[in-house]
Design a protein that fits this description.
Elements lengths: L4 E6 L10 H9 L2 E4 L5 H7 L5 E4 L12 H13 L3 E6 L9 H10 L4 E4 L4 H9 L12 E5 L8 H9 L3 E5 L5 H10 L7 E6 L7 E6 H5 L10 E5 L6 H4 L19
Parallel strand pairs: 1-4, 1-5, 2-3, 2-4, 6-7
Antiparallel strand pairs: 7-10, 8-9, 8-10
């Protein structure tokens, strides 16, 4: 029996119309779709093949319904060996803070052909939909993509270097860590008036953008957020007031469904 193929594709940050044409074409051909939690259900409704089997294999911190990476790897192999065209659909872009290497290793070890299709990463989507370029002449000429799990896992000189840089800092998957990030940067010398922009559910109908200062956030003990939340630190955040073209939603809601048991 001929082995199938796996397409690892980025779904973009939320807005279904940010899906690439190539990923859309493969979704229309797919036998099986393994979709992350941060994949728009509207996208799947509008672009996936009507006969495709869709499995939601999302992960969510603290949820017992999260699907393990081991289980995802096994599903990829099982369906590909059954001669299926499998689309592994990941939120954002496959190269930013995803487990794509683990999946690539699994496919290689099992001799399964694959293709990788990039998507629009959350930082690009949030930047565009908030009117804030991540690099801009006179504001920042570099940008760093980071994530925050535990301050103690990074040495002091790491935080000192971040606190001193003029680069734009973009923290992925760090909504709960907003106060801790601000405290760490302030403690290592970042100016208290340095701007912070927090974008929740970027590019979706529930997008919320708020502007803050490091000094304001460092004094907090917790931050209530909806996943996904992106944290941008730097002078470029000042540009939102002038160039933000999209109003915050007036309706509270959760665009991405929580992780669920299959």
């Amino acid at each position: 029996m001929e082995t199938g193929k796996v397409i690892i594709a980025g779904a973009g940050p939320g807005d279904p119309e940010l899906l690439t044409l190539k990923a859309s074409r493969y979704l229309q051909q797919a036998d099986v779709i393994l979709a992350d939690r941060l994949v728009s259900r509207d996208m799947l409704r509008d672009y996936a093949c009507a006969s495709a089997q869709i499995l939601f294999v999302g992960k969510e911190g603290g949820s017992t319904a999260s699907v393990s990476q081991k289980s995802i790897n096994e599903l990829l192999v099982t369906y590909a060996r059954a001669s299926k065209l499998v689309v592994r659909l990941k939120g954002g872009d496959v190269a930013f803070f995803s487990n794509v290497l683990d999946e690539l290793n699994t496919l290689k070890v099992n001799g399964i052909p694959y293709e990788i299709i990039p998507g629009i990463t959350a930082a690009s989507g949030a930047s565009a939909y908030s009117g804030v370029p991540l690099t801009a002449r006179g504001f920042a000429d570099s940008v760093r993509f980071l994530t925050y799990f535990n301050k103690e896992s990074r040495p002091d000189d790491y935080w000192a270097e971040l606190a001193a840089t003029d680069d734009t800092l973009v923290f992925y998957m760090s909504g709960a860590g907003v106060p801790a990030i601000a405290r760490a940067l302030a403690a290592h010398g970042m100016a208290g008036d340095k701007g912070v922009m927090i974008i929740a559910q970027a590019t979706t109908p529930y997008q919320q953008v708020s502007l803050h200062r490091i000094s304001d956030l460092a004094g907090l003990t917790e931050w209530n957020y909806l996943s996904p939340t992106l944290v941008v630190v730097g002078r470029v955040t000042e540009l939102h007031r002038e160039f933000g073209w999209r109003d915050n939603t007036v309706t509270d809601g959760r665009y991405f469904a929580p992780a669920q048991n299959r």
